[in-house]
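ok so i was messing around last nite and threw this chain in just to see what happens. nothing serious, just curious
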Amino acid sequence: MKRRESNAQSAIEKNLRVLIVEDSEGDALLLLRELRKGGYETLFERVETAEAMKNALGNEKWDLVISDYVLPRFSGIDALEIYKESGLDMPFIILSGKIGEDIAVSAMKAGAHDYILKGNLARLIPAIERELREAEVRRERGLAEADRTRFMTAIQNATDAIVVTDTNWVILYVNSAFGYITGYTGSEAVGQKMNILRSGKHDDGFYDEINETLKQGKIWSGRIINKKKDGTLYEEDTTISPAKDPSGKIVNYVAIKRDMTEKLKLESIAEAVNIMNNIGY
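result:
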């Protein structure tokens, strides 16, 4: 059963949801008193069995788990395994009056975030606050990684070719569409310079203009005649953007390239049909 331990004396209350794995109600009360001293208003549940712990983890949302190491019906290591099997990411702290250094090290290696002796509860609040901060960092890192994965998936599946180069035009990344359009696989393109696509249809001044625009931090857009791996020429609409590091230095170029071959072919056919209609065919 969940209970709330209030801290009426604290000017600033910090809410904390704690799952306590402890067979001694007295020890649990000492733990809660320490949390009150640290300025926490605590919503807690005390469990003594593996089944009760599984139910609590599955049915409620917790900020951390504090577990005794020695329990009559199962151990702190058993509790740690249940926590790990749940897939949840929050601090798991072992609190015990009977734990040697070797056991403590083993518990940490097994996945416990910290261990604290019941005779040294002064360490409890600093340990909790440190582990809560680290859990938040892990959460934010996980969200950022998920965002990055979604972003990279969208880029990889885009219908336009997307190319990332360094400022010397060495290719660092291409998406799948680049291969469909040019005939070069990613492994063939990466490490090469973008001039592998040059068709010879543009003079040096054309490319100098692109370079100068990008060096000024501006975006260049235009149509380019390029050459595929098999030598076929094709036209593409290209937008190239400079990418900067946190200091403002340009470190990459990002090009979005749309093959215009089919569109131009259709436009040419439509124009021919229109001319024929106009002359009476």
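not much to say yet. The radius of gyration is 32 Å.
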